[in-house]
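User: Predict the structure for this protein chain, please.
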Amino acid sequence: MTLNSRRGRTTALALLAALGVLYPLLRRPILTWGATSEEAASRLPGDELLEDADGVSTRAITIDAPAASVWPWLVQMGPSPRGGAYTYDWIENLLGLDMHSADRVLAEFQHPEIGATISLGPNQMRLERIEPQHVLAWRSEDGNWVWTFVLEEQDGTTRLISRNRFRQPTLAARIGMLPMEPGSLVMERKMLRGIKERAERLALAERSLSRHARGPGGCRFSEGSPHRRRSPDLLGAIFAAARHACPSPYAGLSFASVPLSVSRAGQEHTT
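Assistant: Here is the predicted structure, written as structure tokens:
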């Protein structure tokens, strides 16, 4: 063995040793990005779907929008024709996941039901728990992965928490998971920020609509209207009805700064 090769080997071993010492210190912020210590340590809805997890990540973000504006983006997530994952599509698709992040609410996926399934690579995910505008939990077919979204609304803003729980039945699986954790942070951080951007834009569009909902002669939405219930899949129809019923205030109304579209089967409404 030459001197240079011995030096190279020594350097590589030193780097591995340093990584072994530092990674446990770095691992917690990687697995808990955006989450408070209380959120990371708390028991959340969906945890009961996989009690004895070998690995847990809890990541979170604050969204300046009500839960009703966040929920539509969560329930439509998944591979095409669903709404994608709002992360780096090109990376997802290198892995063959067929993800195409939508910038519009897809009406056909706004009514989730227990037992619905999506494919995430080799994992077949089944919808196991639904509490509208609060909890959405998926579990893999083999039971080794649970992915739960929890929404907590307060004063018009929403805390979105994403928790992943894994069972890794072999030592090889546990070791193999370690290098994937930093990558999962990169992807999930982009996803959370993507949901935040879309939800805040939707909420802004709804607030703009609400401000212009009253027109001459008392023209306005009734208390029981779909808009008051914040049904995003009906926004296109609401805009059309409002413009027809209240032409004066809506005539010059522009939503160019908050592009939003609502897709229905076979048609698309843009607001």
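The chain has eight helices and nine strands.
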